[in-house]
């Protein structure tokens, strides 16, 4: 892909540098980075309105935190999911060199500057904000809007499950809207691959506490059923505006998840209450979404009776809400909670191995 990308980078003090990454030429205004967390850069294709999101992971941090496996899993899942309409699309991946030295005349003469190694994920720029942001703005969604988002998430989860992938991190923060208002699943570092048989099932504690299924909390072997539990929790949050299980600390929260039933407000419809109860069923074998559920498939439920699933799969249904995003606003909701930086890249971005 021949392109001239314009990125802008914001750091804490001013040094300029020039270096090669594979076949890319990058001009960077760089400063010291103080946070050992993945950074996301907003990238614009020069001369166009096309934008991209570039996730940067510092290799030393990945190694220190023993996140090599999860990083590779995220790359693999993004590669698989790029063909699906409701999973964040990955365009390519590349990495920076081991080290770099340069001398800047006058101010940095005879001084060597070593750059951090980074892994880069070039992904689609989702400019509609995450669903949690919109819940905080609206309090809760009307059933039609929650049903629409829910149907698109169901499509994405079914796709992953057919590939033997357990997502393990379904939550409102990981549902992001595109510019049209369609949902995308993001952040796949928590995924577990090749879950087809019982002997492959994990039993470690993984995920976000509020969304963990009882079998995860209890340390039992688990499978795709945990994603349907988490989906039930996030559907409840969209419809009610709060979590179905709460506690003053993690231990109390886990006790509630394993022993209590959620409270269903009076304004929820009969169909909404019914499907929420099926998703948050304590027994994973008969939970909605699993083959042994006596109520049948997720798509058969009365709650989704108005959904045309063929059109959902083809992304042909109009979203109930379209984000109002300014084309040139760096502070819009699309980049909330992200550190925006700007870089200039010119050259040919290499494709990931999975893309040929």
TrEMBL record:
The keyword Kinase applies. Residues 1-24 form the signal peptide. SUPFAM superfamilies: Protein kinase-like (PK-like). Residues 15-304 form the Protein kinase domain. Pfam families: Pkinase. Residues 305-356 form the AGC-kinase C-terminal domain. Gene3D superfamilies: Phosphorylase Kinase, domain 1, Transferase(Phosphotransferase) domain 1. Keywords: ATP-binding, Kinase, Nucleotide-binding, Serine/threonine-protein kinase, Signal, Transferase. InterPro entries: AGC-kinase_C, Kinase-like_dom_sf, Prot_kinase_dom. It comes from the Eukaryota. This is PRKCD. It comes from Cordylochernes scorpioides. The lineage of its organism: Eukaryota, Metazoa, Ecdysozoa, Arthropoda, Chelicerata.
